[in-house]
Amino acid sequence: MLRQIGLAKALVNFSELFDPHNAVENVHSQTRRMVMVSPEPNFWINVSIELPKIAQSSTTTSKSNAAGSKAKSKGKEKEASSATKPAPVTYDYEDGAIHDTVIQAQLLQGYERFKLLHGSFSSILNDLGQEALELQLERFFTVWAWTWNLEDKAELSEHLGTRLHPYFSILMPLLDGYSSLLPDPVIPVLFLRPYIIPSSRYTAAKFPETLAQHLLTMIPAPHGEDNMSASIDTIRALSPTGDPSGPNIFGIPGVNMEVMDVRKWNWTSYLTFGKGSSSSSHKSTPSFSEKQSQEGQNPSAEVQPESQPEPGSESTSNVETQVDPKALEDALSENVPTTNSIGDASADPAETVTTQDNPFDAADPDQCQELLRVAVSSSPNSSLTMSPTARNMSYRPESPPTPPEPPEFSLLNVRLAPASDPISTSRRTVHFYTRNGLLLALLGVDEMGEKEGILGTTEDDVLALAAEHADELFDTVELNIEKVSESKLAESLPSATKLLQASDRFIISTGQYTVSTPEFASQSSHLHNAKSLLRKDPDVLEVFSRGQNPQYWHVARRGLAGHDAVDHDDSTPSRDGEMYLEVFRKEATLPDVDNVLAGSLRKSGVAENGLI
After folding, report:
1. 226, 278, 491, 512: which has the fewest C-beta neighbours closer than 10 Å?
2. What are phi and psi for residue 190, nearest 5 degrees?
3. Is residue 87 within 8 Å of 65, Cβ to Cβ?
4. Could you tell me which InterPro entries the record lists for this protein (predicted)?
5. Is residue 339 part of a domain?
6. From edge to edge, which strands make up the β-sheet containing 26-28?
7. How far apart are CA 364 and CA 372, in angstroms?
8. What is the spatial distance between Cα 1 and Cα 162, in angstroms, rounded to a whole number?
9. In a domain, 23, yes or no
C-alpha cells in the first residue's frame, strides 16, 4: 500500500512540473491500471486495479519447448527430463476491459456521497482535526470499497445524471405551480423511483447528483406478498386453477371455507357430549332435499319437529316453535317482505324458530318485528330477509365528513455546499413526505427567517402551507400520469417493423438529469471511448464510429444547445449537454445518422424546457 501511494505521489509531482493545471490521472502497465482523482485541493484518491487475465493454451508452449530441447540435448535422459518438465503459464491481460472514465466517475461518486453525509475533507479537517477525518474516512470507505464490484460491466448511463420522468414536460409545470405557493427560498422536488421531477428552482440551484440518488433511497419499497400468507398457500397446495377445495399436501380433500355458512350447521342435537341427550337425538335426520320431496308430494302437510326432548333433560330449556312465513307475512301486513332463495319459488317451506317464549305475544308491533328478525336470522335453513320500513326508521342527521389530517413531513440531515464554493459544506435539513411511491422533498425550509406575524416566514408556517397542498399535488400528478399513459398505450403496441428491426436508442445528459429511451442500456466500448475523448479534449464536439460485425453506428455529441448559444460566464460557445446514440441499421449512412440524432433531440423536449 505504501509503495503504491509513494509511486502515485511521485508521478503527480513529476507531471505538475510540466503542467501545474493538468496533473497525471492514470497510469497503464501490462498487468495493472492506476487511476488518481483529486476531488479537493491537496487531497488525492488513488486506486490500483489488476487487469483481468486469461491463461494462454499450453500446447503451443510445450511443443516449442520440446523441439528446442531435442536440438540442444545430447543424451536421452536430458531429452526425457526436458520433455516432462512443465512449461510456465503465461497470461493475456485485457487492457480494454477497464475504462478510465468509468473508474474516475465511480471514485468521484463515492467522494460525493461521503461529502453529502459527513462534509468535505477540508471542512472536517478544519472543524474536527486530522484524527476525526481519518476515522470517518476509514469507516466510510471501508464499507464502500467492499460494495464496489469491478467485475460488473459498466453501464454508460450510470454516471451521466439522474433519470428524468418520461412525462417531465407535463409534470414540471404542475410542480412549478406548487412551488409558487411557497416562499422563494423553499425548493420543492418530486421523486418517483427511479425518476426525478424537478422544479425550476431545483434546477437553478444545481444540487449534486448524489442528493437525488440519496432521496430516491428514502422511498419505501413496494409491499410484497406477506410471508405468512405465502406459507399458508404453500401448505394448502392450491391447484393450478386456484380451487382451494382440491387435495392438500397430505392427500386430504380441502374445504372451501368461503362458501360455507356456519349458521347452517344444524348441530342442535350434536356436540352435547352425552349430557342430557336422549336416544331420539341419535336418530338420522332427514336432509333438506328429502324435506323438499316430502313437501312436493304433500304440500298441505306441515313439517314436524325432528326430535322431542325429554322433559327432564337439559335440552328442554329451548322450545322449538313452528312458524309459517306466509302466515307471518299476513300478520305483519306489508312490513315484512319475504324472499325464498333456495328451492322452488312457489313452495314456502316452513321455518324452524327456536325461542324461549312465544315472541309474538308482545303488544308492541316494532318489538315483534325485531324479535322475528332475530329468530329468522338464527335459523339454520332460513332464507327469510327483512328490511325495516321508512316509518320504523328514526331520523338521524348525517354528520359532515371529517377533513383528512394534513401530512407530516419527515426530517433528513445532509451536508450541502453552495455552487460557488463546493468545499464549504454546512448542515442542511431536508423535509420530505411520501405517499404511494411518490416523495416530495422541500429544501431551504430551515433557512427561513424568524419573522413573526407574517404567514409563510417561519418554518412551521411554511410546513403547514406545504402540507395543505401536498395531497392535492400528489392527486394531480397521479391523474396526469394515468391519462398520458392511457393516451400512449396505442404507441406501445408492437408492430411488424418493431419486431423485425431493432429500434434506435439514445440517452441525453444535461449535466444534472438524463433523458433516454426506455430500453437504453449500453455497455458499448465505442461509446465509452467517445465519452473519454469528449472529457480529454474540449475542442472535440462529435465522435462517429461504426462497428465491423455488426455494422452499427455509435455517435456522441456535445453542445446540444446549438452553435449560437453561449455560456453565461463568457462569450465562448455553450458546451452544455451530451448525447449518445446507437443506430441499429446497417444500410444507414452518415447523413441518416445525423438526421436521427437531430430528430431524437427535438422529440426529447430538453431544449424546450430550458434544461440545456
Report:
1. 491
2. -110, 150
3. yes
4. Ccz1, CCZ1/INTU/HSP4_longin_1
5. no
6. 26-28, 32-40, 43-50
7. 12
8. 35
9. yes
The closest of 516, 583, 527, 518 to 551, measured between CA atoms, is 583
Comparing CA positions, the residue from 322, 314, 304 lying closest to residue 269 is: 314
Residues of 255-279 as b/e, b for ≥16 C-beta within 10 angstroms? eeeeeeeeeeeeebbeeeeeeebbe
pLDDT digits 0-9 by tens, 555-598: 999 988 764 454 544 444 445 789 999 998 888 888 999 999 99
pLDDT at 604: 87
On the question of pLDDT at 552 being above 60, the answer is yes
Q: Is 576 found in the same domain as 509?
A: yes
pTM equals 0.65
Q: In 402-494, at which residue ranges do the beta strands (DSSP E only) sit?
A: 410-416, 426-435, 438-443
Q: Which three cell numbers stand for residue 425?
A: 459544506
How many residues are present in the chain?
612
State yes or no: pLDDT of 22 exceeds 90: no
Secondary structure E strands in 241-399: 319-323, 351-355
Residue with grid cell 426529447, as numbered in its chain: 604
Question: In which domain, by residue range, is 430 found?
Answer: 162-221+410-487
And the C-alpha cell for 264? 347452517
Domain membership flag for residue 237: no
Name residue, grid cell 352425552. Answer: 274
Helix (H, G, I), strand (E, B) or coil at 458: coil
Beta-bridged to residue 553, according to DSSP, are 546, 583
Q: Which three three-digit cell numbers place residue 301?
A: 302437510
> Are 469 and 533 within one domain?
no
Would you say 307 and 281 are in contact if contact means Cβ atoms under 8 Å apart?
A: yes
Contact of 462 with 208, CB cutoff 8 Å: no
What average pLDDT does range 108-122 have in this prediction? 94
- Which set of grid coordinates corresponds to residue 605? 423536449
Mode of pairing for the β-strands spanning 162-163 and 513-516: parallel
164 DSSP 8-state letter: B
Let me know: does 285 contact 306? Beta carbons within 8 Å: yes
Element (H, E) at 590: helix 590-604
Q: HSE-up of 259 (CA within 13 Å, CB side)? A: 6
Euclidean distance between CA atoms 352 and 379, whole angstroms: 6
472 lies in the same domain as 574: no
User: Are 49 and 35 in contact, with CB atoms under 8 Å apart?
Assistant: yes
Do residues 48 and 59 both lie within one domain? no
Q: At residue 114, what are phi and psi to the nearest 5 degrees?
A: -65, -45
The total domain count for the chain is: 4
Q: Is residue 298 part of a domain?
A: no
Q: Could you tell me where the beta strands, DSSP code E, fall in 108-241?
A: 162-163, 187-192, 195-198
- Cα 433 to the center of its chain, rounded Å: 16
